[in-house]
Amino acid sequence: MKSWLTTTDHKRIGLLYFWTAFGFFMIGGLEALIIRAQLVRPDGGLGVSAETFNQLFTMHGTTMVFLALMPLSAAFFNYIIPLQIGARDVAFPRLNAFSYWVFLLGGLFLNASFVAGPLFGADRLSVAPDAGWFGYANLTSRQFSPGPNVDFWLLGLQILGIASLAAGFNFVVTILNMRAPGMRMLRLPPFTWMTLITQFLVITAFPVITVALVLLMFDRFFGTHFFLPAGGGDPILWQHLFWMFGHPEVYILILPAMGIISEVLPTFSKKPLFGYTVVVYSGVVIAFLGWSVWSHHMFSTGLGPIADSVFAGTTMLIAIPTGVKIFNWIGTLWGGQIRFTTSLLFAVGFIAMFIIGGLSGVTHASAPSDLQQTDTYYVVAHIHYVLFGGTILGLFSGIYYWWPKMTGRFLSERMGKVHFWLTLIGMNLAFFPMHFSGLLGMPRRIYTYSADLGVARFNQLSTIGAFLIGIATLVFFWNLLRTRRRPSNAPANPWGGATLEWAISSPPPVYNFTVIPTVTSRLPLWQTERHAPMAPLPDRPPAPIHVPGGSWWPMITAFGLPIIAIGALAHLIPIVLAGAAVVIVGIYRWAYEPFEM
Amino acid sequence: MTHGSTHATSMGVDNRKMAFWAFIGSECLLFGSLIATYLVYKGRSLVGPYPHEILNIPFTSFSTFDLLMSSLAMVLALAAVQRGDMKQGKLWLFVTALLGLIFLGGQFWEFSHFVHEGLGLTTNLFGSTFYVLTGTHGAHVTVGVIWLLTLWIQALRGKLGPQNALTVEITGLYWHFVDVVWIVIFTVVYLIQ
Amino acid sequence: MLRGAVYFDAVPLVLALLLLFLTACSGQFPQSVFEPRSDFSTELAGLFTNIFWWAVGVFVIVETLLLIAIARYRARPGAAEPKPVHGHTALEIGWTLAPALILVFIAVPTMRTIFATAGQAPEGALRVEVIGHQWWWEYRYPTLNISAYNELHLPVATPIQVEMTSADVIHSFWVPRLGGKRDLIQGRTNRIAFRADSTGEYWGQCAEFCGASHANMRLRVFVQSDSAFQRWVDQERAAPATPAKGSPAEAGLQVFRRSACIGCHTIAGVAQGKIGPDLSHVGGRATIAGALFPNTSETLHRWIMNAPSLKPGALMPPQNLSPQDLDAVVAYLQSLK
């Protein structure tokens, strides 16, 4: 137990990230199921109140983005990246532990709002955030959201931002600086490349939302008017700041999954990734363009025809590198020897579904067309084809692919296939009809809709689909749990992968590599025209390898942050100061603690 | 801060230094967003006091000069530590921190003077954007001063030597960055009214 | 081995067909974007259709390629190792240019439509100001000197210049069959322009999340012939009806006068409250409570007794009226044609 609390081993931290994020994924999924159950009937549904519904969709979005998808990707960053680049750990193991603890505590802080009502004298149990995951001003002002709900949200997101930023710096340095000899940038595995791009987006996008949240905090706590027209402020500034973060965030969510399937497809078709450099550079281009499209979320705010044209244009441009990636993935499959493992099924599912999400995205890019689609269920369909059909299928593909590496145990392929087909059918049943609900006039974020709109049947299909996804996820969960009782018999390279993580045992020893490998090709474990496979590493390290011990200070420092947030929430300065003291003492002890790498 | 640059790294730059550059890149976006907010709301205050009525350019020019001199002191401190001259190192670390403190004192005086003149945090958009922007910068200077004093105390206790040159260098990176940000803020807020 | 592979896209394709079928033979869709009834909405529907068919084309080609790949290249025991192809420059250039070309065909009509629907009506258009409130709509006709609430009346075949703003949080005015949505933002004025091409009743609702009763912020637009519109204008301009002596409505007027009603509602000559909608002609409306319920005696009763239970967050508190007083107030309100 103590060794898990103090661990600085990237592999353990990766597992912690995985299980924590998966737990939040289940919570977010449960919220979605309640939302879908409510909408199964028009005119009042199953009786979920408007207030509860608004909390549910706010928390569903916030949870899935910040507490499930990002940290599930982070689980792979942690576990896999050091192995893929041939390193013993990340650049800053303690900072890595700190990121995890901050993420966990931030997530718990946000979710504590579900039961914190009595502490704030509210007449209901839950005071969860209820202004949407996008928190548009001026609905978030004290005037229109007097309770602690939005405070939980803005403080929770600031905590989580710290976790993401710390991890961002860590992985940028790890990937750039900790590569094994010979691992040149254009030999990095595509997953590592996409992670690097993602982390650059994290460290540039998160400061922007931090500023937005700080300004909102000043409005709510100190009475400024940054987003309040009453004092000359402009609610639209919030939207600009939020989406300047929010659109890169979309790529933060999708690029790691793109990286995963760029590993899975070559392995299971026994062919190198088609157009490796093009895939890498198109990722870079997507990240750059991702910074120039934010206002396409704001076409209905009346930006004027010039701005509309510019942002429609840049958004359409992004379709090009995205399309190029898809063609390269198909090119990878083409002419291969495809083994239909669960991991590959999910990867192919990613491509098939992401195409749909991408194409509906083009209809959004067209600003006038978007005026009929934005804020309707059509957008809900689009984001779920991209984030569920894309990111989540990609993450599942990665889990089936790397689970034997991470635990030494295989997931059941049979249950995996049940999981896959249920998920694929469920998601299409859930999200495809939403295109119709939306275009037939159903706005999003509504707890009830008129039977006269004629969209009840589409909603029923969506609800059935959502519950199928729920069942599929339970199958998956059971599959995960049962591996604990399975023999630890995974070989080092069960799938015949080409990258370095497959060169060492499953799970890897604490020091990862007995000898740091020297890399001479992009596919070190494969025979290619010019390169023989890397010689196997020795079974034992030739000399004892020093592994840093654990540290309490990352966790203790992390605890200071929610204490500060609780103090702010309760308007109690002494608690804020106490939290700050914990952080300061933690940092000093951390800095002056002997910790050898 | 106990380990030096013992690791062989792919890019030939120490991990901590590289992380710091990444951090500074991130900070640029932070200050960029704040400065953008200031510029968006420039001239949109509904009531006074307005910038031209209240900003004291000669005084702040002195503060700016003070901060610039602290950067010079920082350079001297680093050079001294690198060549192992800890006597000079101690001196210049302290001078840097002291100049930082003088800047903070100036900011404190400026803020209380403005409040006295009727410009509070919530008075108008100018007040809100001004205090949040310069306050964030001031918070960065405060962190820098605490950091410098920590190094200085370490040095007094004989625990800081040439082996810690990298630590001092990173402190310097931070300090120079905070200084450069101030030049931008000074230009945007004070000079271009 | 096409069998296994086909399932991949069979799922969405079968669904699409099923849903198209459902759509075609289901009843009415009062908020459908596919039945445009104005120049604005017709432009948008045309643009969407244009992009939609490009998307269908791309979808079919790319998914077919994917299906062929996974069907043809299934691993077979004893097959030779695949050729380690690393890429193909001409192909890369080709599949970069192809989407770029298609996007040109989408971008050009997009830009054209952006400028065609920029929200500026021709000279002489009827100006309507829309003001969003949590959770109801206020419409002002500055040139006609009248106002309307939740139900917007417009003359057919007349250019309309809509100018919108909000009294509180951001709302979005959306009547799909008449045009795309536009946000109502406090401190800003946004514009749309359109010309309805046929008379009828059009539905809409708020499309930007605006708090507890966002779902209940609905609206109706009545596009009328010129003469019908003029009749409505005349009726709105007239002073509210005065109930006959001794009628139940007259008793209701007295109840209205001494109740909390006057704090929030205006009835010309009776009360000047500004918090809720003006009730001077409430009896003439088809709906109440933000177009949420039909305007009937029964719904008025329920609404006055306990508005927040019907519309969460509604500012109108439950009214503690005796059954007789309630009947009287309802009678009075219904008399205000």
Largest sheet of chain B, described in full?
Answer: none
Q: State the separation between the terminal residues of chain B, measured CA to CA.
A: 43 Å
Radius of gyration of chain B: 19 Å
**What is the CA-atom radius of gyration of chain C, in angstroms?**
28 Å
Q: How many strands appear in the DSSP assignment of chain C?
A: 14
CATH class of the domain at 66-191 in chain B: Mainly Alpha
Multimeric status of the protein: heterotrimer
* Strand arrangement in the largest pleated sheet of chain C: 3-2-1-5-8
Strand pairing plus helix content of chain B: what structural class?
A: mainly alpha
> At CATH's second level, what is the architecture of the largest domain in chain C?
Sandwich
Bulk shape of chain B: elongated
The counted number of beta strands of chain B is 0
Q: Greatest chain-chain interface?
A: A-C, 104 and 103 residues
Helix content of chain C: 40-55%
CATH level 1 name of the largest domain in chain C? Mainly Beta
Secondary-structure map:
The complex is a heterotrimer of chains A (597), B (193) and C (337).
Chain A: H1 2-5, H2 10-38, H3 50-85, H4 93-112, H5 149-177, H6 190-222, H7 235-269, H8 276-290, H9 305-333, H10 342-365, H11 367-373, H12 377-407, H13 413-439, H14 456-482, H15 553-569, H16 573-591
Helix pairs in contact in A: 2-3, 2-4, 2-14, 3-4, 3-5, 3-7, 3-12, 4-5, 4-15, 5-6, 5-15, 6-7, 6-8, 7-8, 7-10, 7-12, 8-9, 9-10, 10-12, 10-13, 12-13, 13-14, 15-16
Chain B: H1 15-40, H2 51-54, H3 57-82, H4 86-117, H5 125-156, H6 165-191
Chain C: H1 2-25, H2 39-72, H3 89-116, E1 126-133, E2 136-141, E3 146-149, E4 151-155, E5 159-166, E6 171-173, E7 182-184, E8 190-195, E9 200-205, E10 218-224, H4 226-237, H5 248-258, H6 261-264, E11 266-267, E12 271-272, E13 287-288, E14 293-294, H7 297-305, H8 307-310, H9 323-335
Parallel strand pairs in C: 1-5, 4-10
Antiparallel strand pairs in C: 1-2, 2-3, 5-8, 6-7, 9-10, 11-12, 13-14
